[in-house]
Amino acid sequence: MEVARRELARMRSLLAEHQRVEDVWLHWKIKRANFDTWCGYDIEHLFAAGAQATVAFVRDSEHPDRDDVLERLLDEEGQPHVSEDDLAAWLQRERSRFPLGPAAEDPLRWVHRAKFIGDGELARQWLDRWASGRQRDEETLSQLRYQLADLGAFAEAAKAQRESLVFADNPWDTASAWQSLAQLERQAGGHHAAWEALRECRRALDGVSGWTTVGLGRMYVEELFRLAAAATGTLAGVVFAEAERQALQVPGLPLVVLQAATEAADNVGDQTRAAHYQKLRHAEQRRIDVEMGWASS
């Protein structure tokens, strides 16, 4: 949503940048579209072609909105609300926010735009351009991990996440980093690598006071069940058994974890445990419905 809002703002800025006096009617249509645009759409957009030139153009027109636009453009003394100097300063600010060419902008901005229009290949090209030559510091690796995962390149995202492990300097961050790596490895199909990451996560959790009662602990158990649901053969059974052991330590497992547990039990062929987790899931859903007032009488 934030990307969409920024792109709309950019399009409006580009419209102003053309500085065509006849666009005053389009700017006026945008400004009066709703309450938010009436308050938040800068009046300078209407004056983009120049304060005096715009007023003269509107005065000489026979457009049906002529009088309404003039009323908004002029103050009580009949002078434009915006001076030529103020308009020039506003245009300069807009240009600094929205440069006119790709070379003048951060490549990440173009990554967002490419994803916004659904062009994953183009987004990847811009991401590679952004990453090229950059220092592989924590910020860069974090951005790479997020963007690559968002583009479905889970193996590469896992590689970036593995590199970033060196920046985890306390048990909480270390456990969180290993849990994130496990998720990415699972999504990439690297089930054994995901299992090893979860084992490291569990070791790090020993240093986190009260880990069984916080979200990180629940996320760890959820990832165990998700891996058990995705893995095959002996590994699936091993991970499922560990997930059940760890789940006993974590009270109040949320709905999403119970659903993952049900799927894991199904995957390893344990219908008794699948029925058990399904029963717990239904009970939790019922509790939520009652608490939210959704339960039928």
User: Which residues form runs of ≥5 with pLDDT under 50?
Assistant: none
Helix content: 55-70%
Q: How much strand content do the residues show? A: under 5%
- Tally of extended strands? 0
Mean of residue pLDDT values: 89
- Taking Cα atoms only, what radius of gyration do you get, to the nearest Å? 28 Å
Largest sheet, strands/sense/barrel: none
Briefly note the structural class of the backbone. mainly alpha
Order of helices and strands: HHHHHHHHHHHHHHHH
Sum up the overall morphology in one term: elongated
Report how far the terminal alpha carbons are from each other. Answer: 38 Å
Number of helices: 16
Task: Please tell me about this protein's structure.
The model has no long low-confidence stretch (mean pLDDT 89). Helix 12 runs antiparallel to helix 13 and helix 15 (255-267) packs antiparallel against helix 16. The protein has 16 helices and no strands. It has helices at residues 2-18, 24-31, 35-40, 51-60, 66-73, 84-97, 107-116, 120-131, 138-150, 154-164, 171-187, 191-205, 215-230, 233-247, 255-267, 271-292. The chain is elongated and about 80 Å long. By secondary structure, the chain is mainly alpha-helical.
